[in-house]
Amino acid sequence: MDMFLLEAAINGLLLAGVLALLTLGLNLIFGVIDVVWIAYADLVMCGMYAVYWLFAVYGWPLPLAFAVSVLGVAALGMMVHVLIIAPILSSAPINQLLATGGLLYFLQSFATLLFTTDFRNIGVRLPIIEIGGIYISYSRLLAFGVALVGATALYLFLKRTYIGTAIRAIAQDREIIGLMGVDQRRIYLVTSAIGGALAGLGACLLALQYDVHPFIGNTFGPLIFMICVLGGLGNMIGGFVAAFIISQIIAIGGYYFSTELSYVLAFMLFIVLMFIRPQGIVGR
Amino acid sequence: MRAWRKFISAGGPKPIMLSLVDVSAGYSSLRALFGVSLEVAAGETVGVIGPNGAGKTTLMRVISGLVAAFAGAITLDGRSIVGVPPHRIVEHGIAHVPENRRLFPRLTVEDNLRIGAFIPAARHHFAEQLAWVYQLFPQLRERRRQPAGTLSGGEQQMCAIGRALMSRPRLLLMDEPSAGLAPLVVQQVFDLIRRIRAEGLTVLIVEQNVQQVLEVVDRAYLLEVGSIRLAGTSTELKNNEFIRKAYMGL
């Protein structure tokens, strides 16, 4: 097999890790609260700015900057729920969509106002490593590893803890869950915090690889929504599988044609699959 | 015998555990209960019988906090529980086995039981309580890794009762436990209720299956169109001419 093709495939695999992590967060929130956070990618943008300011401007150690950014976006996620979602929880889904869509423009405009449209880089140059003639970016490898650890931690949390079990149960019967002693509002708040934390973690991993600017959410936001829908909205395993499929199409398509065309291919496949399997590729 | 149940089985006069006085309740457009009063003493098994649409489910829901009372007093051990949200009522020691079981179908049997022990007071005794539920219902242990939605009707009822028992309740509310089950399974469900009774729990049970329920309860109330029409011991009601004609087909 062609070495460059293999390299593209491995890079695609590594890209999938971060996408899967973000997909997981979006799916968790949709699956539990039944709300789509249109502005999810822009929470990631906020997290990237947090990393940039804390590390590159204020000179905090990188791990500390990462930890504070994750916690910061988790808090932001809770604010999104309390201030925007909770008051309109019982209104029509379109209103919720419009409200979080409004948040998207708010965050982008606010970031432009505060930080201007400059591209900013945290300036960490991680090495490119060579394994048997294949070149792999260390930052991508790290991102993939952290994404897998994050996903595993989430899985164990959902499987092994009482709150995790309640999070899995709540969408199956929102009324009866109260009879179990579970406060619905508390579960929604915890879920929003976890969704925010995953966006924050994604932000740390993306900040290692990309420049941050107010509109960076637009570059991968549509992609993670497409992956979510492809895997079946709310289906976490489906989203995980879809993240790997889409990133392979982008990586290998990029190798044969160009990156732009590979995105066209991915979205075309998405449209076709939506006709064949509207419930998602990993259907129930 | 576990310590938390010991005081129930101790002799002497039985204090009133649950009391409803003149309770009216319902939904925005429809009133379902009109001034209902009833009492359940500690250690008693009490039934509420009546036709479809009499307000039996609303009665259960108003006790567990799912439906708000318009008027009247509801007390548990003398303390008012009116306006307390459902997740707090559980902490007061009331567990509700809802109509149609309402398990979490895609969670395993054991996860359903785990969520039943969600309140902090129950979590500390999870292993002990789980062992007790599995001893009561050995089938549940065999099927503990199966999604609850794949169980048979009778097993689902066991799981729903087990889930409620996991919160270590003092009062168990059961809403139509025999509904939608095959005759043979109905018999099993009433056997289950006898076993739970024998464990010393206080039980309030709502049923349409009048003949069977009068065999397992100490006392019963007849609820018709949202009001208590008759009350008495199970023997009195079994021999009541009106009940025999209207509800037992005798």
Strand content of chain A: under 5%
As residue ranges, the low-confidence spans of chain A are none
Helix content of chain B: 25-40%
What is the SS-derived class of chain B? alpha/beta
Largest interface: A-B, 17 and 27 residues
**How are the strands of the biggest sheet of chain A laid out side by side?**
1-2
Overview of the molecule:
The complex is a heterodimer of chains A (284) and B (250). By secondary structure, chain A is mainly alpha-helical. In chain A, 73% of the residues lie in helices and 3% in strands. Chain A is globular. By secondary structure, chain B is of the alpha/beta class. In chain B, 39% of the residues lie in helices and 27% in strands. Chain B has twelve helices and ten strands. In chain B, the strands form two sheets. Chain B has a six-stranded mixed sheet with strand order 6-7-8-3-9-10, with helices on both faces. In chain B, helix 9 (183-198) links the parallel strand 7 (171-175) and strand 8. In chain B, helix 8 (153-165) runs parallel beside helix 9. The N and C termini of chain B lie far apart (41 Å). Residues 1-10 of chain B have low confidence and may be disordered. The interface between A and B is medium-sized, with 17 and 27 residues.
